[in-house]
Amino acid sequence: MQVFITGGTGTVGSAVVAELLANDHTVLALARSDDSARTLEDAGAKVLRGELADLDVLRAGAAQSDGVISLAFSHDFSDPDGLARAIAQEGAALAALGDELVGSNRPIITVSGTPGVPGRPSTEADPIPTDGPVGGRGRSVNALLELASRGVRATAVRLPRTVHNEGRGGFAGLLVDAARRTGVSGYPGDGAQRWPAVHARDAATLFRLVLESAPPGTAWHAVADEGDTVHDIATVIGRRLGLPVEPVPESAFGPFGPIFAMDQPSSSTHTRQALGWQPTHPSLLEDLENVQP
């Protein structure tokens, strides 16, 4: 099938594009710059020029495709007001894409994060948050899934806190950046809190499986590592960078501090059993061995 994809040059998106093309699908990818367009064309995708805010362009991409994967999220972490704008933009984009597919029974996949559940790993049956600073993303995802009742095979892939490739990406990547900046491989609290993770190429395989066969209105967990402790993550980073590994205040991580301090393991048992998904690429702790001093 021809798949329209947004966010096709990111850590996850580039892996999804490669996975789709390697499995007899064609890709039409949104590109907002000449550099992005060249990258996508070099990978073998066709390009549709435009931005996530160009709703007419999004509708046109969906109209000429057999399915949609929406991955783009244009948040600048240096802008304190950028998160709210990015969430609103993403919600408008999902609504436009979903409306274009109503009555077609074509698939659309959106992305969210795995939820945190006190005392146990979260599962696919747990709801995603719809309040707090990122609650708008949860509401947009839920609205898209509700289109299952209107002839859209809408699904969601929930990504863990770290999607990694070659030692880069996700929350672990932010710890690497902070360590380089401060000279300390730091972790909040006692470091016993757990973060789930997945290699980008394993996540890409799941996106393809969901696109090809997942029932409408369903959510799936792209979790390979149920939960590595933040202390273990920081220890590998410190060893690779030759830096001391020490506890630091939550405030050292800015707005991410309270999130970094949370214990948030997640399970993918149902996803593996129902779709036959089996991660095969390096774990997060193995992949962090690629971090360069």
From TrEMBL:
GO terms for cellular component: cytoplasm. InterPro entries: Epimerase_deHydtase, NAD(P)-bd_dom_sf, NAD(P)-dependent_oxidoreduct. Residues 3-215 form the NAD-dependent epimerase/dehydratase domain. SUPFAM superfamilies: NAD(P)-binding Rossmann-fold domains. One of its GO terms (molecular function) is aldehyde dehydrogenase (NAD+) activity. Pfam families: Epimerase. PANTHER family: PROTEIN YEEZ, PUTATIVE-RELATED. This is NAD-dependent epimerase/dehydratase family protein. The lineage of its organism: Bacteria, Bacillati, Actinomycetota, Actinomycetes, Mycobacteriales.
